[in-house]
Amino acid sequence: MELVKRGFLRACKNHSFLSFELIDDILAPLCANHKTPKPASKEAIRALVAEINDTISDLGQSLVFIKYPIKAAEYLVYAKTDATPDSVANTGLTAEECQYFSKLLDKIASEEDCHIAWNGAYNDIIMQASSKPLKKSRMQELLQKWTQMGYFMEVDERIYLGPRSLVELSFYLSSNHGENIKNCTLCKCLVLWDIRCASCNIQFHRECIQTYLQRRDICPSCGNLWTTPIRRSTG
Ligand SMILES: [Zn+2]
Ligand SMILES: [Zn+2]
Hints:
Number of strands: 10
CATH superfamily of the largest domain: Winged helix-like DNA-binding domain superfamily/Winged helix DNA-binding domain
GO molecular function: ubiquitin protein ligase activity; zinc ion binding
Bound molecules: zinc ion
GO cellular component, one term: Smc5-Smc6 complex
Pfam family, one: SMC_Nse1
Strand content: 15-25%
Oligomer: single chain
CATH topology of the largest domain: Arc Repressor Mutant, subunit A
Structural class: alpha+beta
InterPro entries: Nse1, Nse1_RING_C4HC3-type, PKC_DAG/PE, WH-like_DNA-bd_sf, Znf_RING/FYVE/PHD
Enzyme class: transferase
Radius of gyration: 19 Å
Order of helices and strands: HEHHEEHHEHEEHHEEEEH
């Protein structure tokens, strides 16, 4: 099992964020190679991830499951626990390129619903006066790389904060963009693009408020009757 865990962690590092389908695609051959039974359920996968986390927390790494409403999916995210926008932009980049990451992250996070039109990633990004301007082709290359790494997500010609940013930079995002980015008061994790109370407009994770409303029928924040439909609209 140890070899399976090591191989799986390596795959998580390479992919940055993984759907359950991808997790299955990785575990199937890995477990077969090491003649170990494959975790058969989501619960078994979560248990495997918890065991891996016990061994990597000292190394400043963690694997975190996150619900991502924009894709109506749950992902497993590989994260460094001490990351900041300056450090995530990766080694091998110039100061200007790292600055571009921070500026783009701030630009998206400062929008109310934390997304921008795709061309906004190349226009109106104000860099420090002393820095050399980046070519648009280089910006596109970087954005593509950071999207593959899960820091941003492109959907319908818009760019959203990606699952890895939400996990790895959650402290930075909620402390620097607290007006748009808040933690769900029920589970204390960051919540975006999810369900809102019709009275006070505060946002919760759908699953969190659903569980809460099994016992009560009021908003935990404002105390008014909860009226927002819980089911995801299919339209
Ligand atoms: Zn929650
Ligand atoms: Zn409310």
